[in-house]
Sequence to fold (561 residues):
Amino acid sequence: MKVGIFQFNGCDKCFAESLLLGGGHEVERVSVPASWKGGKLDVAVITGYLLPKDKSALDKIAASSGKMIAYGSCATTGGVFGLAYQRGNDIHPLSTLVPKEILNVDGCLGEVEELEAALWGKIPNDKSKLCEACSRHSTCQYLDDVVRQLEIEDGDEVCFNNKGFLCSGYVARSCKENCVGSGTPCRGCKPSIKDPSFRMLGMFATLMANVEVATEATGKGGTDKLADAPDALTRSVPDVSGSLFRFSLPASRLPLGKAPSAGNVLSDVFIGRPIEELPLITGLLGGLKSISFTLDVVEAYENGAGLAVSEKTKALRRELLALEKDLQAAVAKGNKEAYKAATSAIRKVAGNMNLSNVYFGGFKVPIQGYDDTTDYRSHVFEIKAGKYASGSVVYEIDSSGLVIAFTRKEE
Amino acid sequence: MVESKKRGCDIPRDRHDHNIVVFACNECGQGAFNTAGVARMMYDASVTIVPVQCSGMISPAMIMDALAEGADAVGCIGCCFGACHFVNGNFLNMHRVKMMKKLFLEMGYSDQIINHYTARAAEGETAVGDVEDILERLERAEKEGGTFKQ
Fold:
């Protein structure tokens, strides 16, 4: 089978993961689709987020390929870069740009096993539910308050949502990345139902029944209505679009956002997000530089806010940075075995390729092979407004912990 | 804008020619509209009432369906506080609508195009007042340029 793999905009993690495709295919890897010379393909695999300017390249690919597969959340629903849709960046899912039947392989990172199956025309199994696979159990109680992820997870086996963390597991499929296994509520990159974000919004808002909501008299006819004033409910979830529409904003049926833009997609992704979400987002979209990017963001805040970090944490982070170099070298050479070795070593320390275990102050869950967890597990911190910088990253947060400016210098 | 033919009837449109969807609960919401009708009270003809068992069953996905299919504004009408026939359905929907309002504001749109109201089945003017409020808010949102239609 002749397969073309095309990397459009954004992070190149899925493009790199497609190295692991099994043998028996004649694979053409194209990292600059606009200058692709063309040719007949059985299957075209599209990765990365898509803008209207990519339409001509996509049309050319569509005309010369039999089947088209969107691989990874960026191509299927806009992905984490799709958060910039809030600020007027017209990011599209592949299915709205190409008038052709598209097979979607969701996930951030997209699973290469599902891609392999999709090449043979198999639709990814959408029957698996994360809640069925998750070891935590629900308490079926309304929440009194919502917890922003600023405290260490105490490791008991109660459902994240029942503890007040917003976990998208209700509307997601179980996956290889398994963020819940790294002390991180599910990000929701593999939806199990149609319209996952609005349904999760409904579910979580229902759970918040005991959180106070402001009402006022209508003044007409003498009954009550919902008030416009901010209340405990809106303070509980400071960033609804980022927490619930993390991967699906462009595919959510909301019109193109009109919030003010900072001028580039990367900054627009980050502005308005709470500080505790930053390392999780950088882990998702940093591509082959995600480790250094994430550590820059984490260390900027640690240094600026005066958070103490243990020696063991520093050593583990240095280990991760060395592994990132190995990963980049493996991908540059197209070496499948080296890529496998590097990713499994990263998964061991950072939990998964989205670096769910990397956090402010240390790591969230015990790392296999290291007994004394107190050496590297600590990340309770308070929000301190201010400007933080480290390495290539400069950002500023306000007193409620929301990012108001974000820039990253590209090397 | 949804054509009146698509709605299966030929209702004369009012001067604004708006398209407003109102989800009204089986008990107080629809009851108040019925009472308003019996008392020959007038309310805007651009309102389409969607009957639901309880306002607690109105999901954000349903509200988005309405907005994405051409509604200018959506109102949800449930029972008065403490009077919900399904314990607390009206409160649950208020929480959802409030979160959606915050989402719309974050996206740079107006939060005035959706709201949750309460009504009393025995008093038609409560439903009529709610419709008036929906229209007033919609006009405010249009002035600000915050509706979904450009």
Remarks:
- The radius of gyration of chain A is 21 Å.
- The mean pLDDT of chain A is 91.
- Chain A has three domains: 2-119, 130-244, 265-408.
- Chain A touches chain B through 44 residues (CB under 8 Å).
